[in-house]
Structures are given as structure tokens and as C-alpha cells.
Amino acid sequence: MAWLLVSLLTPAAALSQATLPTQTLPVVAQVCGPVLEQRQHRYPASTCVALEVPDTPAEYQIGLMGRSHLPPERGMWFRFDRQNASFWMRNTLIPLDLVFLERRDSRMARVVKVAHGVLPCQSLHCPTYEAGQPVDHVVELAAGEARRRGWKEETVLDFRWLEDSGGENDRSQSTRD
């Protein structure tokens, strides 16, 4: 009986890496920066990060769960209506940087907080990470990438849809459950 109770209370412990949900979404956008001048919107490719963008509630919930690697030039862009967004690392296998941003206009966003090197968590009680104020975007990067790219509080970044992705007007403004 005690074994049954323990197994019911700790279902995450029974999950193996092979059974974790995972997804790799197509790259449909990029973020470049830091923006040094408001009128300058061209960047060398090395300053940009290719972004996967979840579009459904299920894609938002899975995020980067179960992924064993995230290249330094790739990330995931979570977009939502302005809110006090809270993220956790449950069932995430790799450390990440969480970059919390507030939208300035249709393309630009300002970094309000960076959680550097957030560690994976397999527990039922994982810590949560938030900006401490409402945000519109969160970008997840491989750990160390935000610092390497010079992304810190007050940094302005330029987001853009790739031409063949349908553009911002054709993508839903998903919310994270």
C-alpha cells in the first residue's frame, strides 16, 4: 500500500527521458540585438537568434521540455498578452537563460530581467522564475547565451518574422496555460 501511495504521489519520478514530451518547432522568427540606435534595423547574422514560436496551448506547455540540446544560435519565443509570467523548468533537461521582455512597439522589446543559467528540475516542486512585473515576451536560450550576447536589463531587442512564416498578422497571439 505504501508503494502505491508513493508511486501515485511521484509520477514524474517514474518518467524516463524517453517518455518526456518533446517538440522541435520550425524557426519562424528571429531576434537581433542589442539595438544600439532606434533607426538601425540591420544586423550581422551572428547577432541574431533563430526562434521557434509555440502557437497552441499544448506547444506552450511543452516548450523546451525533454530537449537534450539547444544550439547557441537558437531559442524559443513565448508571446502573450501583458501579464506576470511565471516559468519553471520541470522536465527540462538543459540549463537555460530566461529573458523577460516588455514590448515597446510592433518589433522592439526591452529586457526587464534575465534569469541566467536556470537549472533543470525533475521534482514535483520546482522553483518558478518571473520578472517581478508584467511582460509580453519571454525568450529561452541555452544557458550563458544572454550574457555572451550582451543581453541585460534595459537592452532593446528587435524581433521579426521570417518572410516565409506568414508574418505576425497571420500568427495567433497565444497565451501560456
Can you give a write-up of this model?
The protein has one domain (23-170): Jelly Rolls. It is 12% helix and 34% strand. It has helices at residues 2-9, 11-14, 57-62, 145-148, and strands at 27-32, 48-52, 74-83, 86-88, 96-103, 108-118, 128-130, 135-142, 156-161. A 7-stranded mixed barrel has the order 1-2-3-8-5-6-9. A two-stranded antiparallel ribbon has the order 4-7.
Instruction: Enter the CATH topology name.
Output: Jelly Rolls
Q: Give the overall silhouette.
A: globular
The N- and C-terminal alpha carbons lie at a distance of 34 Å
| Helix content range | 10-25%
Number of strands: 9
- CATH 4th-level superfamily: Protein of unknown function DUF192
InterPro entries: DUF192, Saro_0823-like_sf
Keywords: Signal
Organism: Candidatus Synechococcus spongiarum LMB bulk15N
Signal peptide: 1-18
List keywords for this structure.
mainly beta, Jelly Rolls, two-stranded antiparallel sheet, 4 helices, 9 strands, disordered C terminus
In short:
By secondary structure, the chain is mainly β.
SSE order and pairing:
Elements (H helix, E strand, L loop, with lengths): L1 H8 L1 H4 L12 E6 L15 E5 L4 H6 L11 E10 L2 E3 L7 E8 L4 E11 L9 E3 L4 E8 L2 H4 L7 E6 L16
Parallel strand pairs: 2-3
Antiparallel strand pairs: 1-2, 1-9, 3-8, 4-7, 5-6, 5-8, 6-9
